[in-house]
Design a protein that fits this description.
Layout (H helix, E strand, L loop, with lengths): L21 H10 L6 H11 L7 E4 L4 E4 L3
The structure holds zinc ion.
The site of zinc ion (ZN) has 7 residues, from β2.
């Protein structure tokens, strides 16, 4: 019955949307639409009616914003 998170898990403070390798992230980046700001990304999600299951995140690869996929 040891189901508590181990203390070593603590260092993952900033979780990326998914655990992907760099290549996969770059591929996702090139496939995804980019937004110049968080507001733009959220507006786009709002317009598409998907703001409840999408989140905007800053992409370190292109230094713009993407929406998470649902
Ligand atoms: Zn990107």
């Amino acid at each position: 019955m040891r189901r508590l998170a181990s203390p070593t898990m603590k260092r993952a403070a900033r979780n990326p949307p998914k655990r992907l390798g760099r290549e996969e992230r770059e591929r996702m980046c090139t496939r995804k639409r980019r937004y110049s700001s968080q507001g733009d990304a959220l507006d786009a999600a709002l317009l598409a009616g998907v703001e409840r299951n999408r989140e905007a995140y800053f992409c370190p690869i292109c230094r713009q914003w993407h929406l998470t996929s649902a």
